[in-house]
């Protein structure tokens, strides 16, 4: 079993029966010190304290099982930052109402407010390119199937 799969297996008891979910696991082997990065999330977010608790438990297990053959390693357990792409439907759901940038498989980019999340698609309201005039038609929601999405990220505004 590879290290990434082993880390994922060891994490399962700490996910509190699906309260938390694994967004990504990255393993960077090295001759001097391997690095494991685990990104966790939940429907309501995850605190630094929760990440630290999981990190301690997981780190102890990795040491006990000598996953890196007694070689030193660094373990980072954190929540995905705002620059990390949305990966799971659960992440889209908790970001309804926020501005998103959606890169489609065909190379097009759509920007707008995440209005809703369905079983197999998202709906965004795109920002108008210019200030709407009185007689302009209303802006129609854009339905984007998950299968058409290459990458979605939250857009942070400091206005």
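Q: What amino acid sequence fits the structure above?
A:
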């Amino acid at each position: 079993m590879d290290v990434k799969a082993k880390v994922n297996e060891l994490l399962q008891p700490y996910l509190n029966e699906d309260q938390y979910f694994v967004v990504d696991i990255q393993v960077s082997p090295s001759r001097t010190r391997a690095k494991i990065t685990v990104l966790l999330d939940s429907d309501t977010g995850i605190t630094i304290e929760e990440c630290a608790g999981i990190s301690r438990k997981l780190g102890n297990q990795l040491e006990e099982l000598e996953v890196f053959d007694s070689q030193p390693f660094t373990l980072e357990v954190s929540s995905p930052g705002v620059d990390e792409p949305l990966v799971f439907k659960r992440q889209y759901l908790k970001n309804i109402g926020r501005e998103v940038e959606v890169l489609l498989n065909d190379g097009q980019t759509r920007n707008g407010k995440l209005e809703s999340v369905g079983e197999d698609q998202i709906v965004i309201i795109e920002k108008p390119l210019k200030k709407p005039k009185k007689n302009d038609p209303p802006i129609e929601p854009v339905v984007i199937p998950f299968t058409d999405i290459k990458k979605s990220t939250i857009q942070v505004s400091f206005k």
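Q: And what stands out in the fold?
A: Residues 51 and 77 are 6 Å apart (CA to CA).
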